[in-house]
Automatic annotation (TrEMBL), chains A, B:
Signal peptide: none annotated. This is Glycolate oxidase. It comes from the Bacteria. Residues 42-220 form the FAD-binding PCMH-type domain. It comes from Lacrimispora amygdalina. Gene3D superfamilies: 3.30.465.10, 3.30.70.2190, 3.30.70.2740, Vanillyl-alcohol Oxidase, Chain A, domain 4. PROSITE patterns: FAD_PCMH. Its cofactor is FAD. InterPro entries: FAD-bd_oxidored_4_C, FAD-bd_PCMH, FAD-bd_PCMH-like_sf, FAD-bd_PCMH_sub2, FAD-linked_Oxase-like_C, FAD-linked_OxidoTrans_Type4, Oxid_FAD_bind_N, Vanillyl_alc_oxidase_C-sub2.
Length: 466, 466
């Protein structure tokens, strides 16, 4: 299956004939950034890198690559964490990030039509100016929308608003053989054949290249207020979450954090967090259209938390406090990264009443393996981000230890009916753990689906299940 | 592809060996109900009908059928409207409706685990007793949950809460070759490989047989109030909808109805509607946790409607009024059906700002083709239910006229960027219209996906695209 044609001068010539010399790069012209993502533990430089501006260009390149059997990887901002956009078989990398226009905001149908390379931060800025709202809110705001679609990115607001898939109404996709397909549209409901749109969402660039997306928007809530709630222990904090979820208060986000991560963020940012005296915290957000409505909701939740043993309840409503809390939350990943020499991340998702058990288990692993482990994440939806830190370990010792710790964590996740990835995907780095969880038939079925789209297996090979 | 083994005595003997004599039916023992659904325009009796009680039984039957190349159709309540569960190639029909136990309500993770044959009305009764809420609300409450999953049923609350797909967290599925697969789970987020769960949703029984489902629940809103709003014309009513949707008032449902359908319902039920003096109505529902919150929302919407020309605003809050409005709304389909000799239905979905244009077009068709056309539907999500009535036409004239009217309607829908089905599916009856809309590559891709699941094409053949 993996017997690909090696790129030669003729291939480069073809690409130049389609795109012009200025948008085709080889050898030393390719910036090293394109050889890796943010943390996939794998790198390889593509044989050719091309910048595209139109769907037709993507289509022509795919037709050619399909004919010639050349592997192709589409890439956005490269902010992935599992190596999904690394061209492990070389070949052509298509840089989608210059197809980055917002094409239409439709205020009657509440949709936004845009090109794949638009950044998450650009979307929120743009739609909020129109008093509209794109709810998915992953931490990495410089990711592209197509990257988010391909990982089915989740983010902090999933507990109330759902994930990226829930906001994708339609897609234009270039298939591996170069055909252009439109699936879905501006319509709200759709039972017209297999939901190819939903299959593309989360397929990590292996089934087609997204060249346009139609997103669902909501009216922008008028107000949002956060609560920072310290607890004496993580256990007490986490066990409060199901009670909050059931309370009809509908928080937008329920994040958990522990003191050690807060301290790291304080050091990294050189800025104080409102409180760092407790072991564990819940950070909740509420949104709505009136202050009274939000107050009613958060008062109910504050009562629940205090009854369950919370030490205090800080209302995060001044600009200063908002900034200090959310800039810290936004910096957790970077802060943990800065505190060590290297690290890797586990993005398991477990049923939300199993979070505490999982986190306690990672604490045991710290002692058992003599390694630092840090975590934070989405208590409201059971999606954890657990980081194993290299610190002073040798490269060899680190690889070995990391494999052992990951093996233990993913095995624990299976025991708790969790899954390998809540929102970062499988890509290259998490294949082995997914393959341990899914039956042979399951994997076989995914391979068959892949072949249904890509009979020559040229689009982003070596990912998810192969 | 369609060269199937004909059922013989040996096959029946095998089925009896798995299920016992009492649960295997042939010939005259098969009730005629199993030969058709509610309105697919097609009927055929299966060669064998079997009742199953366990996943293992389904698995054994599928393994056998796969080996022998016998077509199989799984059937729930038979409330479909497009012939999706009719065994057009004969073979085995598996009646799933006795696998109808609710297995678990998990109040910490807000999930409901249940067998495929549980009825929609049983779900709402059960979860509401636990102060929880399953939002999808199709009109047909005697449909099974697996039927709803297989059509990705929508219903009236889609404008606020989404469709069935959005509430399916996990599935147990028996594949065509008899393998049992679990996809998803109780987890809230999932980026762990291709979303086979989302592909099964809406696949109309062609990819696998759902034997268990894990549904997402929400806390039950404490109150709901409806508004009935008469308008001088349908146009005025419908053009108000985008303004309502943008208003942040978040109605749960926005239905439209016209006087003629209301009159039919009054006659059918022998019961008065609160008002029938206007040409067109919007019926809106608001839910929430306090009367003030709901009042604020509906007052805003009432103001918008009056500004846009509404004649009046009736608040539907007494039990009596609720009953008269919602029993009428619930009886529309039956009332229209009772008013004629035969009818067929078009379930297009268009962008919601195109509804008025589509409905006006159906009025033109009434005059052009001298045929009665009635419609009602989901103004909030652009999903229309348009009924063409046979009345006194001969069978032959009716078939011809229906084909012409449908051709005109589906062609109009395409012009408006609509899709063939919003929630009833393609099944057998709407294949031709879907095939007119989708490109050859699109259809080819669906066929390839089908083969990825079912290389022998034995599960519900002759549906959607073939």
């Amino acid at each position: 299956m993996m017997d690909y044609k090696k790129i030669d001068a003729g291939d480069v010539e073809y690409l130049v004939s389609v795109l012009g010399k200025d948008r085709v790069f080889t050898g030393e012209e390719i910036n090293d950034d394109f050889s890796h993502d943010e943390m996939g533990g794998i790198s390889r430089t593509p044989d050719v890198l091309v910048d595209v501006l139109t769907t037709e260009e993507v289509s022509k390149i795919m037709k050619y690559a399909y004919d010639q059997r050349i592997p192709v990887v589409a890439r956005g901002s490269g902010t992935g964490l599992v190596g999904a956009s690394v061209p492990v078989y070389g070949g052509i990398m298509i840089n989608m990030s210059k197809m980055n226009r917002i094409l239409e905001i439709d205020e009657e149908n509440l949709t936004l039509t845009l090109e794949p390379g638009v950044l998450l931060m650009e979307i929120s800025d743009f739609v909020e100016e129109h008093d509209l709202f794109y709810p998915p809110d992953p931490g990495e705001k410089s990711a592209t929308i197509a990257g988010n679609i391909n990982t089915n990115a989740g983010g902090m607001r999933a507990v109330k608003y759902g994930v990226t898939r829930d906001y994708v109404r339609g897609l234009e996709v270039v298939l591996p053989n170069g055909e252009i397909l439109e699936v879905g549209g501006k319509v709200v409901k759709n039972s017209s054949g297999y939901s190819i749109k939903d299959l593309i969402c989360g397929s990590e660039g292996t089934l087609g290249i997204v060249t346009k997306a139609i997103l669902k928007l909501l009216p922008l809530p008028k107000k949002a207020i956060s609560l920072l709630i310290p607890f004496p222990s993580l256990d007490m904090a986490i066990s409060t979450v199901p009670k909050i979820v059931k309370s009809k208060a509908a928080p937008t986000a329920i994040e958990f954090m522990q003191r050690e991560v807060i301290l790291a963020a304080e050091e990294y940012l050189g800025k104080k967090f409102p409180d760092n005296s407790s072991d564990a915290y819940l950070l909740l957000t509420f949104d709505g259209n009136s202050r009274e409505e939000i107050e009613k909701a958060y008062e109910k939740v504050a009562d629940i938390c205090l009854k369950e043993g919370a030490v205090d309840v800080f209302i995060v409503d001044t600009d200063e406090r908002k900034d200090s809390v959310w800039s810290a939350r936004g910096a957790f990943l970077e802060a943990v990264k800065a505190s060590t020499t290297d690290m890797d991340e586990c993005d398991v998702v477990v049923p939300r009443n199993k979070i505490a058990e999982f986190i306690k288990f990672t604490h045991e692993l710290q002692s058992r393996f003599h390694v630092r482990i840090r975590s934070f994440g989405h208590a409201g939806d059971g999606n954890l981000h657990v980081y194993v830190l290299k610190d002073a370990l040798s490269e060899e010792a680190w690889k070995k230890k990391l494999a052992e710790v990951f093996e233990a964590m993913y095995s624990k996740s299976r025991e708790l009916s969790g899954l390998v990835s809540g929102e970062h995907g499988i890509g290259f780095a998490k294949k082995v753990y997914m393959l341990e969880q899914y039956s042979q038939e399951y994997v076989e079925l995914m391979k068959n689906i892949k072949l249904a789209f890509d009979s020559k297996n040229i689009l982003n090979p070596g990912k998810i299940f192969q």
